[in-house]
Each structure stands twice: as C-alpha cells, then as structure tokens.
Specification:
The structure holds two protein chains of two kinds. By secondary structure, chain A is mostly helical. Helix content of chain A is 68%, strand content 5%. Chain B has a single domain, classed as ABC transporter involved in vitamin B12 uptake, BtuC (Orthogonal Bundle). Chain B is built from 15 helices and four strands. In chain B, the strands form two sheets. In chain B, strands 1-2 form a two-stranded antiparallel ribbon. The chains are: A mainly alpha, B mainly alpha. Chains A and B meet through helix 6, helix 12 and helix 16 of A and helix 6, helix 12 and helix 15 of B.
Amino acid sequence: MKHLTKNDRLLFIFFTIMVLAGPIILAPFGAGYPDLLQRFAIFGLFAVGFNILFGMTGYLSFGHAAFLGVGSYSAVWMFKLLTMNVIPALFLSVVISGLFALLIGFVSLRRSGIYFSILTLAFAQMSYNLAYSVLTPITNGETGLQLNLSDPRILDAANTTGSIPSTNLFGLTMNSTAKFELLGLVFQFNVGFYFCALILIAGFYIAMRIARSPFGLMLLAIKTNQTRLNYTGVNTRPYTLAAFVISGMYAGLAGGLMAITDPLAGAERMQWTASGEVVLMTILGGVGTLLGPVLGAGFIKYFENIFSKINDSVLESWFSFLPEGLSDAMVFVLHFFVGKGWHLTLGLLFMLVVIFLPGGLMEGGTRLYNAFRSKDTKSSKDEPKAAE
Amino acid sequence: MDAILLQILNGLDKGSAYALIALGLTLIFGTLGVVNFAHGALFMIGAFCAVTLQKVFNLYSVVIDPTKTDFLGNPLKVKVPYVETWFGEMAGQAIINWSVPLAILVAIPVMVTIGYVMERGLIKHFYKRPHADQILVTFGLAIVLQEIIKAFYGANPIPTPAPDVFKGSFDFGVLIGFDENSIIYPYWRLIYFVFSALVIGLVFAFLQFTTFGMVVRAGMADRETVGLLGINIDRRFTLMFGIAAAVAGLAGVMYTPINPPNYHMGMDFLVLSFVVVVVGGMGSLPGAVLAGFLLGVLESFASMNEVKTLLPGIDQIIIYLVAIAILLTRPRGLMGRAGVMED
C-alpha cells in the first residue's frame, strides 16, 4: 500500500470498499443476489486482465476466451481428481492457462496490429474446435465437463452423503449464504462472492502496481510507438510476451473462479463471441484505465440481467398510462430491444461508444467532471479580478 | 485417383463461398483500407434476401375450391399463393420453385444500397482512426445486423430449397471415364461453383477492362495521386464498397440451398474468410480467390477418413494451422505485395 501515490491509494481503498459492500449497495437495484454478484466479480477480473494486454500494451486479442475455458477445465479436473478445496484448483488453472498463454503468445506476438488479432482468433477457434471434437476425453465435448459421484478425489474423505460435494475453502462451502432482511430488502452475503471479490481486489491491486511500475511504463511505451522503441535498441518481445502471459493468467483465474461458483466447464466458454464480450466490456468501461474494465463488466452483466428479464407484458404495464395506439406502438418498438433482443441493445450501445466516446464510461465521467469544473475555475478566476 | 478428384470437387463449393467473401473483404481493404468485420453479416443478409423472397412468393389467399371436397362433403378451402392467381398456376409454381435464383435480382440492388449506406453513414468516419477502432465498430455493426435478422426471422435455420430441376446429383465420374457411382456430385454445388467463378470473373473484368475499374485500380495503388489528378476517388471507392457488399450478398443467396441460413451463419464464415484473406495476402484480389479455393479443397482433404484416422481432429483446425504457418513464414501472404501491412 505504501508504494502507491495518494490518489492511487484513495482509488484502491474506494474500490475495495465498493466491492466488499457490493451486496449492500446493489440490493436496492435488484442485483444483490449471489449469482449475479459473482459474475460481476469474475468478469471484472477477466476484464482487468484483458486490459493489461489491450489497454496498456495496445494488442487487441480476439481469443482471450480460450484461456478462460482452459482455466475452467483445469479447475474442474482438480475437483474431480484431487479435492473439492478451491486452492489447488485455482493454482492449476492459473498455471495451465499461463503455460497455454506462453505458447500462444510466443507465436502470435511475432506479428502486431490486425495480424495479431487474427492469429489469436485463429488459435482460440482452434482450441474451441478441438475441445468439441478430438479432446472429448478431456473436455467431455458438447455435454461439458461435470462432477460425478464416482470421481476419485484422492485427498477428500470418503463421500458418504451420496450427493456431489460442493466446492469449499478448507471446509467453508462456497455456496453458503447468510441472509438479512432490513427495510424490506434482502441482503445476501455469499461466501463464493466474497472469495471472488477478494481475488478481484488482489487482481486489481496487482494491475495497479503493474501500471505504475517501470514494466508498466515500458508497456505504455510499446503501445505508443513500438517502432521507435525498437530503433532505440529495446527488445520489446519479452515485455509483450510477459503482458500476454499475465493477462492470460488473469483469464485463467477468472475461468477457475467460474468453475468454483458453478463446477462445470463447457467449450462454449471458449468461443470467439465470448472473447468479443470481454472486448466489449473493456471498451465500454474505458480502455487503458484501471477502473474502467471492472465498470464495463459490471455494466454489461447488470443490464444483461435486467434487460433480458423484461418481456412484452412488463412493457405493456409500463406504458399502460398512454393511449392505446401509442402504448402498442411503444411496446412494438421496444420489444426488439429487450428480452431476447438484449444483444441488439448491446451492439448499438457498443457502436455508439466506439463512435462517440472511444474512452468509454471513464472518459464520459471525466468529460462531465471537466465540464462542471471548468465552470468552477472560470468563476474562481473571475473572483480575484473582482477583488482587484 | 477418383477419391482425390471427389475431395477436390467437394472442396470447391465451400472454397467458392470463401473466395467470394474474401474477395469482397479484400476489395474493401484494398480500396478503403478498412478491416470490415461486418462482412460476414452482409453474406448473411444476402442469404436472407433469398429467404424473404421465398416467403413473399409463398404469401397466399384462401380460396374455396368447388371441384374438391373434404371427407364430409364440404367444399375444400385451399391456399393459393398470390403469384399463382396473378400469373396462372404453372408460371406461379415455377416462380416459387425458382425463388432462390430469382433472389439474385433482388439481392444486387439491396446489397449495393446497404453497402453504400454503410460506407457513407458509418465507415467514412473511421478512415483516420486506428485499425482497432475499425474492427470494433464493424464488429458492433455485425452484432446489430445479426440481432435484427434474428428478431425478424427467429433463431432457427430456415430451409430454402433449390429449384426442383437441380435437386439430386449427377454422376461426374462417368463423364471422365471412371466407374459408375464413383464420383457423385450434387447439381447445386456445381452451379454454386460455376456461379461464383462467373461473379469473380465479372469483378475482375470490371476492374481490368473498364475505365472505372482502371481508375479504381489506380486509386488502390496510389490514392493521393489519383485525387490530385482531379478525380473524385472517394465516390468510386464508395461504389466499390457497394459492389463488395453485393458480392458477399450473392454468395449468401446462392449458398442457401446448400445450408439452411440462420442468423449467425455470417459470423461462422467471417472468421474463416479473414484467415483466407490473410493467407492470400492483405489487399491482393487474386490472392484472396486463390487462397479461398485452396483452403476449401484443403479442408475437404483433411476431412477424408484416411487422413482423420492418421491425425484426429485435423479437419477442424487445418485452415487455422495453414494460416499460422503462412503468417509466421511469409507475412505478406501468398500473393500480397511487399510492404502492405507486413508488420
């Protein structure tokens, strides 16, 4: 903590409090239940990691979901073979996805720009296709990898309950939830969420330290002008590779957490649309900023949850105050944007952000802040004059 | 020998689709320098032009047929498509039957308009922005187009059959002196190959033998100089975008009988088409066509049982493997010019 500047320290403390208080803050918005909160934390972590590659180094990878999938598979295998404790599972998913990223990064990073995007896309699609076909003994193909009663689980005591055990941290089961009711709201404090949240906070801290380190500065220099860096005699390859591996490990960790909160793994997690999703999150929140990716992930997951629940009857009840023809028209138009049409809204939103606000939500926030501040500074500049 | 020939033929139809989409992608990249992730969506929209036309032709009115009765003796109500009432029964049925080839006539103006609007309304503003931004905005556009189609047509594949005349297959082997039934090839796939060869030929002839094409080629080589000569190159490039969209759309229209279209067919083809463009060489039109057919044939060889037992799963990844090998050893692709997007 003491290595951080004052602003960073404030940001980190603010971030920690917001994440830990998530179940309380989000309960009034209808998002205070464990499943969604866990998704916030997991995708937040995924996006923070992706941002180390895309935001800091400037390499747009379209195949990051492959690492997420590999992380999930390794975690589930650990649950099947060794123990239901989450620590070995997470350890394995980080290590395996790191190795996988080292391999892919070593090849892909020979090119940059659009070629890099296509190479990573090709690798991810390859892994996806293989997971569906030849690697079925490892991935269980279309069914997805699931836990069984007959799994060995060498370290765990013999299973006498007759049901599939749940993931735990030294006996603390991940799906146990404490509920409190206050002022008509239900606050749910879930062990799984807090576990994910702590890892997210740790991940955020590491990302922050990376961004402020000499290594982070080097990454920024690579993003700004790699050619110039090469001409000054710097070999950029190790730096980009390190960034790629780190961000792959983040993705693997997120995949492992996914398996912890819901112990199954399927190949669809590796599809390139999933890679596209993390790109959307990062862009929407703000590329290259620390907080942005988490914001974007939360934003997308929250509105996905809200929008996809709205159906025609909900819309009708909203517009029932309007005259009949008008309300029907509103329902007819909005029908395309909610429920199953949520992706349409997402696509439109994404296009608008790329066109008008390339810096994402963070830039929007800064612009608003500056707009208000410039008014203040104008008035404060005027004051001394008046005093003279 | 006949097995090899069969695989080559099998690869040609998929290769034709790759070649057509990759040709359009390269046209856009070569002229405007834009990486268009929405090109797969244009292919898909073309396919849905055929679906729409088929649906329109099948609109019907319910008429009471006095000559027929149901089992209770009441006069039978029959559905008569409007085209049959307008053009007579024979002609009407023929129109419905031929809706896929007829959709070509609809698809060309529709696709050119879509391409034109897309370029003027959106892509134009992205020339000065980095490639990553172009990728992202067209990716967003692809999602939007895909979701609009999904909202109107649903998520399931819609069967769109070819005309009855072209159903079934013919014995290709007998023609060139092999045993009977050794090389069986569906008619429609042959037509698809011939059609795409025709479209590719037309595009090349257009670029090679018309003044317009000459200016476009000059603009591809050196945009600035052409502009300085007082030629409005932007307007011509916009039209090329429309043509590229039409090429993708035609590929989609004719592909519908081979595979019933659904809303994400474009995305499935897009990833492969990008790989094709990269293998052929960014910005090289002959490269795109050559690589399209080459990879299509290669894919079909890899899905032979003999190959699959030797290297399991190779059919799924062969194209990507080739692309990776090409990118690492010859970054400009098979026929790319030196210095174009090589880093």
